Amino acid sequence: MSELWLIHSKLKPPRFRAPLLTREALFDRLEEARRHTLTIVQAGAGEGKSTTLALFVTQSTLPFAWYTLGPEDADPLVFWSHLAAALDSVRPGIQATLHPLLVRARQGEFPWGLIAEALANAAEQPPTDCLLVLDDIHHLDDHPETVRTFERWVSLLPPTLHLIITTRRRLTWPTLTRFLAQRRAWLITESELRLTSADIAALFAHHGIRLRPDQCEQLYNATEGWIMPLQLLAAHLRGATAERVDEALPNLAASLDMLGDFLMHTLIAPLPASLQQFLFDTAILRVLEPAACDAVRRRRDSTALLAQLADIGLNLVQIDDQTYRHHHLVHEFLQQEAQRDPVRWRLLHRRAAAYFAQHGQAEESIDHLLQAEDYEAAAHGMSIVAPRLLAEGRFAHLRRWLNALPDAIRDAWPDLLLIQGDVARFTSRYDDALAAYRRAETCYLARDDAIGQSQALKSQALVYIDTVHPAPAEQLLKQALRVLRREAPTESADLLQLLAENATNRGRPNLGARWYAAARRLGAPPNTELEARIHLRSGRLDACRTILTDQHAATPHRPARTHREPSLLLAFVDVLQGRTTSARQRAADGLALARRLQSPFTESVAHMRLGHAWQLPPLADIARAQRHYEHAIRLNRELAILRGEAEPLFGLAFLHAHHGAPATALEAADRAIRLALRAGDEWVAAIGHLARGITHALHTTPEDAASALHEALHRFETCHDMFGAAMAHLWMAWTAYHTHDPDTFAEHAPHWLAYAITAPEHLHAATLFGLRDPQAYIPLLIHARDHLLPPAAERARALLRQTGLPADIAHHPGYTLHVRLFGPFEVCRGKQPVPADAWRRAKARHLLGLLALHPTPLQREVLFEHLWPDTPPDNAETQLKVTLNALANAIEPERPRRAGTFFIHREGNTIAIQRDAVVCDVWLFQDLIARAEAEPEAERAIELLEQALALYRGDVLPECRYEEWAWPHIERLRLQAVRAAEWLARLYLTRGDAEAAIASAERALALDTCWEPAYRIAMRACAMLHRRPHIVRLYRRCREALQRELGVAPMPETTALYEALVGYAHDANRGGVDTP
How many domains does the chain have? Predict the structure, then answer.
């Protein structure tokens, strides 16, 4: 990060030349900071927060870093740059580590979450304790993105970094509130900073004044222990006798009613006129740096005057040898007084603006120009730097500037009105954006500026494109083109590209392709996002994926563009092609990006895509999917974007259609269709009709299904979407097959097969538009092979081969077999549970479980040995045949007579389960743990482990617990669950979530009462929550369990940890996560 970004004065604690009061009781309270990750000092201005902490850290034996925040530090780029620089003084190398990420941030990629994580990781070394003070953290309060990432950083802090923050107001940030509730943070309030009578006596003694007890009491009653006026009065009366104090005290209370009067009478009035004038003239400056003071005053004596003021004891905050700042209240008072002469006030600000502009500090210069009411010059400066700030995402800064300009000035600078609209659009304030753009259009029209007018019209259209309202967007874009009269090819090409995107949004990708080709002929550069959307809405999903994947690889950290964000488009392609795991991850990444950029509409799109992904297997979570859809709908309603509700509504329609709520599904589909048609989006309307057709098809109303699916087909064909049309043909063929309608099957199946042979992905996994059980395609393919004419029959045969099945397969059950071995034994044929009375023999269940627990085929002799160990081979062979028949009858009762079940593969002397057609909870459990082990990101590992442990409902095959063959599997899988629960507890503890860590550790202990690592994690978590009695009980449980079960004592490290935590239960945050 360039040094130009850093104001080094922010990184130094204040230095006061006046003697400071050492308050032992308060310092004892502050010492608790060394035993906590977070200490919060909460008090109003003038309460002595900064001065007290400055004295405390400079006297501490621990190394410390300091960072004083101002309003400009709410900008995340400024904040993280300075925080990294501050920490570099106690953790050398941090700036170098973060430099690449900060460079990316300056380029507009906004990797704030990555920066927070990297900064937390880098702060772990060296493993020595240190203090970090963030003074005036409340300046972040109005910037949710910075607050969110800051809280994330706090939650990841290593135990050796002790953070102290000061704030003027109570912070309601969730992480800080949780830390306080869990007693993981130490709070020092305003009342603890107030001086007692004894403190007042000591303060005045520092200034050479010996107060009588009655004078201390009188001062305390008048000030209520408020340190600022007491310090000012002590400095003013330095060396005074008791009699002089008596003379000052009678009018003290009246003066303190108005702090300004108090400051003027006790601080300013006694000063020489030259120093008074210096104070008022330099009140416009945030930092009193001699060169700036000289420039403002047109003098060259500021260095001496600053030193003189410091010697007098004016309560200046010293930053370095020659640089100071005023206490905030003093500064506010001086500014109020200086503004009494408005002419000079503006003159001084103009001088300051010129000085900072000359020294390359454009933003500081613009601030002074605004104060000088030199709005023309300020607007000129903004027009130069605003595009950079916009690209860096510094929207709050731009909004403050633009709001300070009078309407007449903004009208004179319509480029700034466009910037104002962009700020509103990028933060999802669409009505404000349209108002600014329309105002800019009027201003450009008055100037007869065709290019500017066209730009304003284009910006208005972008609001409707961002919110997917293609009809009004098209009108505005065509109007913008007419304004240009073909006189500006570059601008015209840009408009043609937007017309192409908008036509694609209307479900007319072919027209979009023509607009795009016209733009390219005018010299427009390639637009990969637009090409991808044209491919998506044309049904060319592989081409869409290729473009988006290549683009994401080239620019992985770019600003989000609402529904056009590549990761969210890829998530949608994923759910259409059955890549559920990828879809969930991409949508989660898009959600995180949207929240970092404070883009509610993009956030709503991410929730829609998460809803799609979580309604699909494997590990579908219907409640979770529904929550995501409802969240998306709520966000769109808050933003008043009704069209934005269409996608979550059609998602809900698919969800309810497949999960037994047809009336709710039809209602959601109808609402999606109405909203889509109102917005002019034929493609989304087609999806709504497809959802209606699927609902009717799944719930045995074939006539209504045919009507809705024909409507969907017509709309998809009108939109030239080959994939959507293929899905409509698929469902009509599926309905015809199940209603024994050969003519309709022969009409529609060939169209589906023609698409499937070129893009067969949907045949191998559950997809949003297709069948939810991939095995349900096989009977359709068999029927098509046997009853259709070439080339459809040959395509069906080829697709059967692609599934790995014999091309001449005669029968298939048409469903996946779902086997649950953890806890109570359950098997489902597709969605239908196998009833208990279908299992004629218990050995049939045991055989299925035994085959599922072995990844490779088993020899018959092995099965004899496991299931019939004491039976002669001939009898065992007979038992196996009978058991296999009973198993086949249970799991595939509709198979042809005397045929074996499709789900059990027999070859020679071996028998195996048909894994491609079976889903088993044990396999999913092991796969999730393996993926967690390979996952470098802790949060993703946590989610994978949570999903794995949710599958573990109890020991595998509990009814076989006494079978010799089953016990090794029971123990092996239980141990995996114990280790997974322990690992999850460690991850929770590292994240700072002590309650979750305890719950996960207890889950491990429920499976193995002697698992010492879980006891240690739980004890550490209890220490974080200051639960000393729980620590004692945990250790006692551990000791008793080990003695009872194994006849041993706890391991030395367990005992050592217990003794340390019980002795210093409040010291929980000093240690890391225990490693056994």
Answer: 4
